Amino acid sequence: MVLGVETWVVAVLGVALFVGAVVQGTVGLGLGLVGAPVTGLVAPELLPEVILWLAMLMALQTMVTEHRGTDWRGLALALPPRVVGTAIGVWVVATAPIEVIGVAVGLMVLLSVLLTVRTVTIPVNRVSLPIAGLVSGVAGTATSIGGPPLAVLYQHHRPYVLRPTLAAYFAIGAALSLVGLGIAGQLDVDTTLLALLLSPVLALGIVVSLPIRRRVPARLIRTGVLTVCAASSLALLVRSLV
Prior knowledge:
Order of helices and strands: HHHHHHHHHHH
Number of domains: 1
Structural class: mainly alpha
Radius of gyration: 16 Å
Distance between the termini: 27 Å
Number of strands: 0
Helix content: over 70%
């Protein structure tokens, strides 16, 4: 046992988070898309806290190293509604059973996969950004997957803008969600320590992602990730519903 969690569960989480970190270091998001469904399958009681802590830590690293391309004007429109969405998400976590959270995670991932596959193009403006922020606040706090709404808006931007902008949003958004959950008494000390214990796999994933960015087409990586995400989320949906 590690902090009240079976050793094999910690190992599975470590592998999933490593894969998610490699993907996020390469294309800008992926830690939650890979990590959350797997966490929901093997240790649903750790959602959304453990993924939120790790998403914040990884995003902070990207902010420091790639901050020059960040679209702060867009974030200024998306972040205030995120606060409102966070409050709604905290209420969901406080009142909904674990099975409901599992279904929400599965559906959120499947919707994200669908939007990405269809390469939906939505204009980035004063209307779409606040809506994305609100939806992301609810989903990010309740399920730990808050990136897709903003990622859909920015998916056609150049990587040097996409990665740091999403990273800044993830870091600030995850911090808001954790503060909200803490105020509501929904944070657990052991889960926080477990997130810190798993954090080295993020650094390893980032290191591995650097040569992949240069050598492997992003299209191939995205296809593989979407396949894994869809399979994991379907399995999580079946488990949560049954």
